[in-house]
Structure formats: structure tokens, C-alpha cells
UniProtKB/TrEMBL annotation:
Domain Membrane insertase YidC/Oxa/ALB C-terminal: 7-75
Locations listed in the record: Cell membrane; Membrane
UniProt topology in membrane: Multi-pass membrane protein
Any GO CC annotation of this UniProt entry: plasma membrane
Originating species: Candidatus Yanofskybacteria bacterium GW2011_GWA1_41_6
The protein's name in its UniProt record: Membrane protein insertase YidC
Molecular function GO terms recorded: membrane insertase activity
Transmembrane segments: 6-26
Amino acid sequence: MPGHDLGLSIIALTVIIRFLFFPLSIKAQRSQRALNAINPHIQAIKEKHKHDQAAQGAAMMQLYKEHNINPIAGC
């Protein structure tokens, strides 16, 4: 039956795509975990530099650098 072949093809394609994106998913999860770990520091920086976006950005980049975090790696 042709319908069964289509169903199996969809399932196979889904499994293949999930397998190919698995490393990216793991990397995103690790990055998110690292960002969650430094979240109190991030909130403190936002509060400290509430009215100065440039200083806030510089402090955030310094924090990321200290903790070896790439803020866009989890995207």
C-alpha cells in the first residue's frame, strides 16, 4: 500500500533530522545551563547599570568572558 510507504518515509525523515540536530540541541542545553548558573550576576549587573546601557553591555560581556560563555551559542 502506498500510504504505508509515505508514513514510513515521514517517520524515517523525522528520525534522521532529529539525529542530525542532536549535537546542536546538546550544545544549546549546555549553554542555557551556563547562563542559568550566572543569572544572579546578570540581574545584579542589570540593576547596577539600569540607566547606562553601554556600561551594562560592557559588564555583561566581561561576565561572559570570565565564565567562558558565548551568549549567542545557544541560539
